[in-house]
Design brief:
The complex is a heterodimer. Chain A is α/β, with parallel strands linked by helices. Chain A is built from 17 helices and 19 strands. Chain A is globular and about 55 Å long. Chain B is an alpha/beta fold. The chains are: A alpha/beta, B alpha/beta.
Amino acid sequence: MAKTLFQKVWEAHTVRKLPNGQTQLFIGTHLIHEVTSPQAFGMLRDLGLKVKYPQRTFATVDHIVPTNELKEPYSDPIAQEMIEALRKNTKDYGIRFFDTTTGTQGIVHMVGPEQGITQPGTTIACGDSHTATHGAFGAIAFGIGTTQVRDVLATQTLALSPLKVRRIEVNGKLAPGVYAKDVILHIIRVLGVNGGIGFAYEYAGSTFDGFSLEERMTVCNMSIEGGARCGYVNPDQKTFDYIKGKPFAPKAADWDAAVARWASFASDAGCQYDDVKVFKAEDIRPTVTWGITPGQAVFIDEKMPALETLNAADRQTAEDAYAHMKLAPNTAIKGTKVDVCFLGSCTNGRISDLREVAKYLKGRKVSSSVKAIVVPGSQLTAIQAVHEGLDKIYIEAGFEWRGAGCSMCLAMNPDKLVGDQLCASSSNRNFKGRQGSQTGRTVLMSPLMVAAAAITGVVSDAREVFKV
Amino acid sequence: MSLAKITQVKALALAVPGDDIDTDRIIPARFLRCVTFDGLGEHAFRDERTGPDGKERPHPMNSAQAGRIAAAKQGVMVVGFNFGCGSSREHAPQSLWRFGFTAFVGGSFAEIFFGNSTTLGVPCLTLSKEDLAECDAFVRANPNVEVTVDVEKLTVSAGVKSWKADIAASARDGLVNGKWDPIADLLEGADSVAKTAGGLAYVAGK
């Protein structure tokens, strides 16, 4: 029988049926960070349990690390305490830790792919909702809570129910100046922030086939913003090429067998989906959010919605959003004053993002009214960017060049908005207060759109600013 | 490990309206700067309850009703659709549970929030859109009437009102049989786990 990738991976990792009807699912790769793991280790100690497969868990530190202070002890004692706790826990239990001193630290969803830990046909769990990022490689990857982190540490399994699979097909070629970020923002806008509840999203079609792994990661990353706990792209030659030679990639003699195995996990022709949605790439334009959910978005050259065009439930959320964002219905978002520009995060903090923006940034200057920061998602990305001289381009343009971490995506470190500052952000969430100030405002967009806003000081169409 | 059988939660209720309430709103990220869940209860909905000037804002969580629930350490929160979306932080249900909420009733729940709550032994039941609106209105109009969230019979009732409710069968099974924390079952399967692991080339190191 023809099967989806989701079904094949699920079956390969099924341990047994649990008494409550759920599946005990083996988790091949477990990723942990400093925020959602300390309580799980506490629970292990309380229950007197060990880590069952320590070699299947990998740790890094990302949420709380300061990006403008590289020496320890950090001036923030809580950040220091949290990193020390992770050092102790990983040492006590024999877990590999990509620490700040290794040159391989970074956002957990960047470290997995960079190290070749993220592989097709595997199950990946992490106490972080953006774990779906790893689905770009054809893995079933999803976020879990801290008690579940304990479950994985203690048993390398989780109690789960299978998801339905929705195929989201995008076909055709994106116009210049339109990026993977616009594709996923558009999908969420159309299908809704809760449209994916109960589903895994399979992203397919010629647009995704043409995407690099980094672009696929941008899309899979935001699956959760559409309500889908996991999203994936079927593995292909590009996937295998990306993994080849990475530290944890299968070596010489094992490589061919691994590739054959990985390829076999791809969804079969003629398999049944629970739902199918089809989009045309040429219909998608640069997209920005205007509200407080990632689904409240418009094309840059569109007006924000008039309240009377919305149904009752959406209208209530929209009224709340307009009040928080200090924006008016039925007006253009283009031209809205911007205070801060943030280029980074597990959505768009990869080397390809930094390269693409740098291409257009040469010779341009950040507006004097804007604070612009660029935060490479990982140390390896930062090292590569410096090697290519990208840091100089950003610094000359007036960006602050920072160290690796989650930074202003969720502002658990000192990078925060102040008051009602408006931030043009390449991150994934525009929730109220998300960027560290309860009255702060976030407008999500692609990296090049962030650069356009930095230069003009207002929400802008990057295609016009950079003559794309 | 023996756990309580959670067949029913009977308690005062508080309506917290709105759809797509994310976990950043339930517990802002700055309160995640900790290595235990202790003390999270007082920070539930912090930035909705308190303005930037430090003054209280009008919010259901600031009401006398919320105070009664906090004192009783027992309460039902009636919410909208897609409650608990966004970040996977278990700190969100932990903070509401530590505040005093022992059951949620809503239109729909984000999946990770749902799992995090039921694993704590806090049921999340859904009602139809119409019934939810009626339940929400009833709870506001009758703050002194206890609401019964019946996990076994799949109803939410208050006074003479009763609404048909739903929850994933596996979650219901876990709650009513006192097996809402799956760790015992998962540990029990160790031999089968080893077998599955051995059959996975990437785990077995092949």
